[in-house]
Write a structure and sequence with these properties.
Rossmann fold; 15 helices; L-fucose Isomerase, Chain A, domain 2; 2 domains; single chain; 545 residues
Length: 545
C-alpha cells in the first residue's frame, strides 16, 4: 500500500466578538504605495474611531511593513497569505484611500464567508474612490456579495448610520431608483439606425487590439471572448514589447514631423530639462514614436480599436502612452504614413483607444465611434475616472479626470490643450499628457460592465459645465493638476446614486452638438446595444428621441 504525505489542513482562525477585521489593497508600484500611505493611514484611523464609537473593535489583518514604508497588500501572493490568517466568517472591511490592483485581494474575498464592506474616503487627493469602484466592479463580476460606503472622515450622520446598519445586518442598501430597464424603444430613424449598425457589426465583425491584458490589476476590465464574440467583436492579443520594438523602427524625422504638426496646431508643451521631474523634448520624441508605432501595428492587424496598458513593463521602458492615446481618439491628428510611405493610416478617422485596456470601454468606444460617425457627429470619445466631486453653486459637479487620453476636441482644440509631465510616482520615465478643461456642452455617458455572467450597459445624459478659473484650479490642485478634467453634471443622478450603482472605475463620455441630438444619439445607442443582446439600463433623466 502506498503511503502519501497529506497536507495539514489549516485550522480557521476564530473571530473575536464585536470585532471588525480590515485589509487594504494597494498598488503594485512601490513609489505609489509609499506616497499614498499617510492618506491611507488617516482613513483607517477615521474609520476605526467611528467603529469604536459604535461599540466595535478593529483588528487590522496585516502589519505595516516599515522597510517598504507602507501597510498595503501589494501583490496577489501577499493577499493570499493574509487571508489565510483571517477568520473566514468575520465581518471584513476593505479600506481604500488609493488606487488598488483588484487581484491582490480577490482570491481571499472569493472564499470569505462573512459580510464584506468596501469603504473609501470622499477625497480627490488620491484615487481612493476610483479604487473602490474598480474593486467593487471586480467583485460584481466575480459574484462576490458586498456592500459599499464612502465618507470624508466617517463622522457624518449619513455614513455613520449606514455603517451601523452594516454592523447589525451585514448589508447596506443604497438608493438606485434612478436606474430602469430600457423598455420599448420608439419607432424612429434612430432606433432603426442602431439596429442596422448592430447587424452590421455582428455580420462583418471587428477586432480590438489588446496590449498586455490585465496588467493594471483591473479584473473588471477583462471581458471573456465568449461574451464578446457574439457581438461580432474579437480580440487581437498583442505584447507591449512588440510596441517598443516597433517604436525603435520609427525614424527621428517621422517623430519630429508629429511634433511640428502639434506645435503648429497650438498644443502647449510645458517642458524643462530635468528628466526626473519635468517634461523633456526627449520624452515627447519617444511618445511621438509610440503614436506612429501604434497606428502601424493597428494597421498591420486590421484593428478597429486599440488599447495600450501602460503599466508593468512598459512604464519601466518608455515614457507614458497617454499623449499618443489622446491623439488616436481624435479624427483631427498628425498624419501617419505606412512604412513605405504609400498611404496615410486611418486618414481622417479616429482610431478609438481604450485607456488602460479596459475592454468595457473598448466595446463602448467602438460602438460610439460607428454610431456617431453614421450620424455625422464628431466621434471623438474618451473614458474618465469617476474621480471625485463637490457641490458648486447649488448643484453637484463631478470631477471626471484621466491621465491624458482625452482627445483635443474635448478641450476645444489643440490650441486650448497643453502637455505636462506625468507624476513620477506613477510614471517613472515621464512623458506628457494631453490635457485641458473639457468644453461646455451636452454629453452622453455610459458604461459597459459584467454582472451575473452577462454584459450590461448603463446609459445616461449629462452636461459639461464651465466653472470659474479659480474653481477649476482648486479642483485640479485637489486631484492631479497634470491631467485633463471634465466638470460634469449628470441628469437625474445624485452623487451617492452613481457611486452605489456604477460598476467600473471608468465612465465613457462623448459630446453631441445639442440636447435634442444627444437624446437621439442615446436612443440609437440603446437600440444598438439591445440588438447586440446587451442588457440596457437607463440612468436618471433620459428622453428617448
Amino acid at each position: 500500500m502506498t503511503h502519501y504525505t497529506l497536507p495539514t489542513p489549516i485550522a480557521p482562525a476564530e473571530a473575536a466578538p464585536r470585532t471588525v477585521y480590515t485589509v487594504a489593497s494597494g498598488d503594485l508600484r512601490p513609489a505609489a504605495n509609499r506616497t499614498c500611505w499617510p492618506t491611507q493611514r488617516q482613513l483607517e484611523g477615521d474609520l476605526e474611531a467611528a467603529l469604536e464609537k459604535l461599540g466595535w473593535s478593529v483588528s487590522r489583518g496585516h502589519a505595516v511593513d516599515e522597510a517598504k514604508g507602507h501597510g498595503f497588500i501589494d501583490s496577489q501572493r501577499a493577499g493570499i497569505e493574509v487571508f489565510k490568517t483571517l477568520p473566514p466568517d468575520a465581518p471584513l472591511i476593505v479600506v481604500e484611500a488609493v488606487w488598488q490592483y483588484s487581484h491582490h485581494v480577490l482570491a481571499g474575498l472569493r472564499s470569505h464567508h462573512g459580510p464584506i464592506l468596501v469603504v473609501a474616503n470622499w477625497s480627490g487627493e488620491f484615487p481612493g474612490l476610483v479604487g473602490l469602484l474598480n474593486l467593487t466592479a471586480s467583485m460584481t463580476k466575480a459574484g462576490i456579495p458586498h456592500s459599499t460606503l464612502w465618507s470624508k472622515d466617517f463622522t457624518d450622520d449619513w455614513a455613520v448610520e449606514r455603517l451601523q446598519t452594516w454592523l447589525e445586518t451585514g448589508t447596506i442598501q443604497h438608493d438606485v431608483s434612478h436606474v430602469r430597464d430600457l423598455g420599448t424603444l420608439p419607432d424612429s430613424d434612430e432606433t432603426r439606425l442602431g439596429r442596422a449598425l448592430a447587424e452590421q457589426l455582428k455580420t462583418e465583425k471587428a477586432i480590438i487590439g489588446v496590449f498586455d491584458e490585465g496588467c493594471m490589476g483591473m479584473y473588471n476590465a477583462i471581458f471573456d471572448d465568449e461574451l464578446l464574440n457574439p457581438l461580432g467583436i474579437y480580440k487581437e492579443r498583442l505584447s507591449q514589447s512588440a510596441l517598443v520594438a516597433e517604436m525603435n523602427r520609427v525614424t527621428d524625422d517621422e517623430a519630429a514631423a508629429v511634433r511640428r504638426w502639434l506645435d503648429e496646431a497650438g498644443l502647449d508643451f510645458r517642458t524643462g530639462s530635468d528628466e526626473a521631474t519635468e517634461l523633456t523634448d526627449a520624452q515627447l520624441h519617444s511618445q511621438f514614436k509610440m503614436y506612429i508605432a501604434a497606428l502601424r501595428m493597428s494597421d498591420d492587424f486590421g484593428l478597429d480599436a486599440v488599447g495600450i496598458q501602460y503599466q508593468q513593463g512598459l512604464k519601466d521602458t518608455v515614457p507614458a502612452s497617454d499623449l499618443a492615446e489622446g491623439l488616436l481618439n481624435d479624427p483631427h491628428r498628425p498624419p501617419v504614413l505606412s512604412r513605405d510611405s504609400s498611404r496615410e493610416l486611418y486618414a481622417g478617422r479616429a482610431l478609438p483607444h481604450f485607456n488602460e485596456v479596459d475592454e468595457g470601454v473598448a466595446v463602448d468606444s467602438l460602438v460610439t465611434n460607428r454610431l456617431w460617425t453614421a450620424m455625422g457627429l464628431d466621434p471623438s470619445t474618451t473614458l474618465h475616472d469617476v474621480r471625485w466631486g463637490e457641490d458648486y453653486d447649488g448643484r453637484f459637479v463631478w470631477v471626471f479626470e484621466i491621465s491624458g487620453s482625452v482627445p483635443a476636441s474635448h478641450n476645444g482644440g489643440y490650441d486650448k490643450s497643453w502637455s505636462m509631465r506625468q507624476p513620477p510616482m506613477f510614471f517613472p520615465l515621464g512623458g506628457g499628457t494631453l490635457s485641458g478643461v473639457s468644453k461646455p456642452g451636452e454629453i452622453v455617458w455610459s458604461r459597459v460592465f459584467l454582472m451575473d455572467g452577462e454584459l450590461h450597459v448603463d446609459l445616461g445624459r449629462g452636461t459639461v459645465v464651465e466653472l470659474p478659473e479659480e474653481e477649476t484650479r482648486r479642483r485640479l490642485d485637489a486631484t492631479n493638476p497634470e491631467w485633463p478634467i471634465m466638470h460634469a453634471v449628470l441628469h437625474g443622478v445624485g452623487r451617492d446614486q452613481l457611486m452605489a450603482r456604477h460598476k467600473a472605475n471608468h465612465v465613457n463620455v462623448v459630446y453631441a452638438p445639442d440636447a435634442a441630438t444627444a437624446d437621439k444619439a442615446l436612443t440609437a445607442k440603446a437600440a444598438l446595444f439591445e440588438a447586440l443582446g446587451v442588457h440596457v439600463h437607463l440612468c436618471g433623466d433620459v428622453t428617448l428621441g
